[in-house]
Amino acid sequence: MMIRSLLCALLLTAAVPANAANLVKTYSYFAIGGRTLEDIEQQLAKHGPQVKSTGSRHPGATQMAFTTRISYASQPGSCRIADAVVTVKVKVILPEWRRPRKADADVRLFWDTLSADIKRHEDRHVEIAQNHGRALEDALKAAYPQKDCDAAKARAAAITAAELAKHDRDQVRFDRVEGANFESRILRLLRYRMERIESGQLRPPA
Q1: Using CA atoms, how far apart are residues 69 and 54, in angstroms rounded to an integer?
Q2: CA–CA separation, 170 vs 42, rounded Å?
Q3: Residues of the chain with pLDDT > 70: what percent?
């Protein structure tokens, strides 16, 4: 799940360069307890991060903000975007199970599978955001010159708003697909982990 922040003026909303928007990525964790699957489910529902877009709590979340720094070059009768640098700042919030000593092996296995899938899901949100940050940077740099710098700034704001709207739609679409496939995906991952444990390729959960 994601929270998008639009910042004001021509600054409208980390570091891994190399043909991509700058990315600043941090992780934070919230603790949950419980011995059974039902306990864990209740703990996630009670302590998971609350997402503004849904108004409910989730097992994980990604907060993100896009910041665009733009420089302009003007000459008589024209103004263009000379350079644009987009930074995507994200904070991934994940659960951390404080497992009791006597937790059953099947509960430990399920948790390892679920927590890995939650992290993968949130990291994919980050990838989607960075892809759109890259697309925004490219679109700004490719913008045609305008009659003056006020018009160039207005064009930059319009390009930014359009790309962030695409970003939001892609994030919502991703969540919808992931939600529909959740049960079958977790069962498939559980089977895969069990097969690897049985073949000695993976250690049983501690």
Answers
A1: 30
A2: 29
A3: 85
Confidence band, pLDDT 50/70/90 cuts, at residue 198: low
- Contact at 8 Å (CB) between 57 and 50? yes
Listing DSSP states for the chain in one string gives: -EEEEPPSTT-------SSS-EEEEEEEEEEE--SSHHHHHHHHHHHSPEETTTTEE-S-EEEEEEEEEEEEEEETTEEEEEEEEEEEEEEEEEEEE---TT--HHHHHHHHHHHHHHHHHHHHHHHHHHHHHHHHHHHHHTPPPBSSHHHHHHHHHHHHHHHHHHHHHHHHHHHHHHHHTHHHHHHHHHHHHHHHHHTTSSPPP-
Q: Which class for 139: exposed (0-12), middle (13-18), buried (19 or more C-beta within 10 A)?
A: middle
Least confident of 4-8, 25-29, 81-85, 134-138: 4-8
- pTM for the complete prediction? 0.80
Above 70 in pLDDT, residue 41? yes
Q: If you compute the radius of gyration of the chain from its CA atoms, what whole number of angstroms results?
A: 22
Burial class (CB within 10 angstroms; exposed 0-12, middle 13-18, buried 19+) of 177: exposed
